Amino acid sequence: MKKILFLCMTALMSVAMLTAGCGDNAADRDSSSSSSTAKTLKIGSSADFAPFEFQGADSNEYQGFDMDLIRAIGKEMGTDVEINNIAFDGLIPALQSGNIDIAISGMSITDERKQQVGFSDPYYDSGLTIAVKADNNDINSFADLKGKKIAVQIGTTGAEEAKKIPDAQVKEMNSSADTFLELKAGNVDAVVNDKPVNDYYMVKNSDNTVKRVGEKLTSESYGIAVKKDNTKLVGELNAALKKLKENGEYNKIYKKWFGTEPTDNK
Ligand code: GLN
Fold first, then answer.
1. Residue ranges in the chain assigned as alpha helix (H)
2. Do residues 68 and 133 both lie within one domain?
3. Considering only CA atoms, which residue is closest to atom 8 of ligand 1?
4. Is the CB of 156 within 6 Å of ligand 1?
5. How many structural domains is the chain composed of?
6. CATH assignment of the domain containing 88
7. Which of ligand 1's atoms lies nearest the C-alpha of 193?
8. Ligand 1 within 6 A of 88 CB?
9. Where does the Solute-binding protein family 3/N-terminal domain start and stop, copy by copy (predicted)?
10. Of 248, 227, 262, 37, which is closest to residue 120 (Cα–Cα)?
11. Ligand 1 lined by 179 (C-beta under 6 Å)
């Protein structure tokens, strides 16, 4: 009987010690960071959208404005970030299923997406523009795209807008890089992409075979997306973003990728 009692007591003590151990760890986690998300944040990004997210030719490291920004935000929040390359049209499903915590991918804040995910404050002002082959003189505006063949990236605002153009044949490609390949191959008359992406392509591919035409069709703002109703994480992202704008870090990252100071720090 004594032996049984002893065994029971030992078991109880072990449970008590384990519980105490867990408690200590939880306390450590809380005190190690001001953020309640002191863990590795899983980031999703479609790394085919230079200069916001891409992999360099000489290194597999994810580079770009969004990549630098989310690393700086992670640092500010006291968390590590793990970047996962996910196709653009798979990012919202990945947030919804909980496979990732955050999507940063040049994603425009739209009413439709706001039904599905939560967004941070806007962090970059963008909009759509057209690019055509350098020797094309027929297409000078969106109105001229009527009845034309247009390449766009699947699941994007560019795809949505192109589908509204009367009689246009819209080819949905996996990436913006693929839209340019279609254009150069002569398979389409024009591409519709985000302005900074079209602009960056012109600078990086200075063979002058492609040109940008017309004004911006839309005014769009990029936001960082999280699972819908995760207002806590949105609050933490916004606080970090605000801090980076105040301490000059946002401007530094902006200048690195766009060569200028942001005129409007959204
Ligand atoms: N800004 C566009 C959108 O949100 C394109 C984004 C992208 O291709 N990465 O739809």
1. 2-32, 65-77, 91-96, 111-114, 157-163, 176-184, 195-204, 231-246, 249-258
2. no
3. 156
4. yes
5. 2
6. 3.40.190.10
7. 5
8. yes
9. 40-261
10. 227
11. no
Residue 111 near residue 157 (C-beta atoms within 8 A): no
Q: In terms of residue numbers, what domain contains 194? A: 128-218
Contact, 181 vs 48, CB < 8 A? no
Low-confidence ranges of the chain (pLDDT < 70): 1-38, 264-266
C-alpha span between 250 and 238 (Å, rounded): 13
The per-residue pLDDT of the chain, averaged, comes to 87
C-alpha 108 – ligand 1 centre gap (Å): 6
What number does the ligand 1 atom closest to the CA of 88 have? 9
Judge if the beta carbon of residue 129 lies within 6 A of ligand 1.
Answer: no
pLDDT of residue 118: 98
What pLDDT shows up at residue 213?
Answer: 92
The count of other CB atoms within 10 Å of the CB of residue 243 is: 15
Considering the domain architecture, whether residues 134 and 210 belong to the same structural domain is answered as yes
Residues 244 and 117 in one domain: yes
Indicate whether 145 and 190 sit together in one domain: yes
Residue 118 CB less than 6 A away from ligand 1:
no
pTM for the whole structure: 0.84
Atom of ligand 1 nearest to the CA of 46: 9
Quick one: pLDDT at residue 263? 74
Residues 120 and 132 both lie in one domain: no
Residue 99 falls inside a structural domain: yes
Together in a domain, 136 and 73: no
pLDDT value of position 37: 47
Does 105 sit in the ligand 1 pocket, CB within 6 Å?
Answer: yes
What pLDDT, on the 0 to 100 scale, is given for residue 2? Answer: 46
Residues 174 and 44 in one domain: no
pLDDT at 75: 97
Distance 186 CA to ligand 1 centre (A): 24
In whole angstroms, what is the distance from residue 75 CA to residue 137 CA?
48
Domain assignment present for 263: no
| pLDDT, position 35 | 45
